[in-house]
Amino acid sequence: MADARVLLAFAALIALALFYIERGLPAAFAPFCAAGSVMAAATVFACFGLAVAGMWAVYLACLAAAGWLVFRWGVQKRALPKLGFAFWFFVAVGLFFILLLWAKRPMFTEWDEFSLWGPAAKLLKVFGQLHTVAPIGWNWPQPSVPGMPVFAYFFQFFGTGFSEWQVYAAYDVFLVAAMAAVLAPFGRKGWNIAAPTALICLLTPYVFRHYRPSTAVSPVYLDSYVDIPLGFAFAAALAIWFASRPAGGAKPRLSEMLPFGLALAVLCLIKDIGTELALVAAVLAFTDTLFVKRADAPRLKNRAGGAFARLGIGLGVIVATFGGWSAYTGVVLEVDRSVDAGGRLNIPLQEIPAHFLSELFSSEKSEFFTTVTGGMAREFFSVRGRGSMLGGGIAVVAVIFGLLALAAFLTKDRQHRRRCLCFGLFSTLGFVAWQLLITMSYLYLFKIEQSLGLESYDRYIYPYYIGWLLAALLLLGQAVAGEEARETPVWWRAPLGKAVALGLAAAVALRVALLIPAQYTVFGVDKSAYNQRRAYAQDVEALTGLLDPAGRTFYVNSADNGLGWLTLCYQMLPYQLDYSVGGGTLERQLKNEDGTLGDKRQVNAAELEAYLFESGCDVVYLEQADGDFREQYGALFTDGMAAYFDGETDLYRVVRTGSTEDGDAVCYLEPMVGARAHY
Amino acid sequence: MGKPRLPKLLAKHPGAALVLACYAVALLLHLAVCTVALAQNRAAYASGELTPATLTLSDFELNDEIYQREDGMLVTSGADPQLLLVDRERRVESLTLHLGYSRAPRIRQVFWAVPGQDYDLRKTAYPFGRAEGEVVTFLLPPGGGQSLRIDPDSEAGTVIEFVSVTINERRPFWQFYQPDAGQALGLLLVPLLVGCGVSLVLEAALGRVFLRRKPNNPDGAPPPGGEGAAGDG
Q: pTM for the full model?
């Protein structure tokens, strides 16, 4: 019943959301704001080394919120607020996902789930420390922002033991909270557009994650990558802005910046590149305030002050969040985020745009430059590109523009029309900026092999598409809801808007159904799909049972591409797995004089012995060693690896004699008899 | 809706009434379709087109990525081991695999095809019901599939014990009414979308719609000039 901690987290989140509603926040935004404030507060505590205490503080705050509500509604008998479709959607669908994942118990399967996001969440649970400082057995300078792992930690804070499916539960609840914000315009009478919009929200991850028929279980809703949460956070930020007040309504209050500012901070905390999305959202809010007329401020110059104030607040939040995390990583990791690009060419981040522009306007572009930029253009402009299930980038943009045009056309409210057009223009400029950002990343940051093939192109682009599409749907929803609320509505306007939303929902549902069989989705996946991972986890548990908890293991796997070492390193936590000279391949990566990466070179037996002596490893684990390995390094083993090749053991104890100062350091490896850990 | 007296609650929420009606229709359709499948299944047994049987290894042909050891165990030697039913014409509607594995299989799949044609990923059977350890039941579409092919794993080096393969066991009637994941999703979503469609057609057709609240109704409508943006209605 330790799994019930997930329900406790969900209940705490709902209590916090209800508290915000009681204090005046629109109900549709409350789930996302509750999730965001948990994430932000817990992250701040964790940066000061108080992750555990901070999480207790967060839970106590939720308890206090619940107590307050009991007082207000139970004792003082104040009127209960209307919670609306969006809030109940969050409660029902959030609970549904939790129960579904509880029944299925899925596990991590994708690469980066073992290299970053999985360990980040697990380190928080097993050590109570952020991944930037927690011990992980190898030199892992990871300055990535910790928003989602911290939120996942909230969901499994109580009890012992790290659970992978509960990480997914946290992520999925976060997504549903963001969807609730997008459903803000719909009251009870708008159910027949709210339901299709909700369905589109739920299917959006499938639309962008897949563009071919599926031949394996889809990672949608079963994924600890942060790109989809980033896209939905962007959508939530835009929804919070645009749904806070109708265009042309009463004078906006600065207090409305609170939920919006929180959303901007959340964007910066989910992924490093989220800062750029937050900037786009802040600029969109600025242009909306500036260009959309209001009754109390009919002229632009009346609105300018308010617009700049809001831009200032938005930028302030972004700078504070980005700066705060940079300061933190500067201290604990000695990494200067704004300077160390970690990229192929080692150019400081600020100089990259200048490099790009000079290359763009030069008459002698390198072949690499033309390949990458040509590839980016091709992916976007082809109808069948890697954009989405709807088609390439141009098809997605066509749908978005269609929705915005329809919203502008349907509404009788001139200010809403202006809002839609303004949004259309500036969000397009934002998209161009986004494309340029990704292009520059391929050109200057990533490895050449990754960039030539535009690796993970769709994953980098679609966060913008997700936010963009859902914001367009929101604006359409507002146009319809506004039309319905008028005293003399035109009979065909609202139904037309609703019909388009319904048609889009039906088309998307059909497309998803044709590309992905239900058994390959979270709804129909069989538990047996995770048999191998479960068996592996059990094997590793058997292995760690043979190890000293304070020890350090050296890993050998002659036939590995890195995944074996990554998976074991993650799975063994809190037991420490050493980086083991190239992740168990015993190859050193050389660096060229200019700092770029060079060739790989196999270490010799003496170098291995020296490494073992200095690294503090107490055990060597042979996951896979072949004849070549035995030839090169067998002399280090007291039995010449006979026990391993006879199938008696996988583990050798490291025995040190002498010392390095005297120059007679000797290290040899003794078989640990009877220690067969591998199947 | 045809009932002599609508409960007060449904009258207050005609939208909900419409959606409930759509679900009721969907449920009836589902029951009807399943009953027809059940009838066809029983008729197939009666006519001898489907016969239950327990198959042994000799009923199967092994492809070149799986071989049998001297001790009788099967060993996979490639990434696409296949067991093909020798009798290509045999109709198989359900299949219970009981195989023992030396390690958890990576992917386990069952295919069927029209005899003479290629296999493709669209004609794959999915595990049905709870897989009890190493015993898994697969269901093929009603009427059964031919050219049965079993892929017991997708990795080399697995040692497999062929315990038993039973086909076409008579399934209890209630299993025919159990929707699989895809059908369940369809039953959940399609009536809702249809209900939305019907309601907005009615909205348009009736102009002032019986499903939509009047603007001056205090219960749930936003004030005129606003857009109900806060979602509190």
A: 0.89
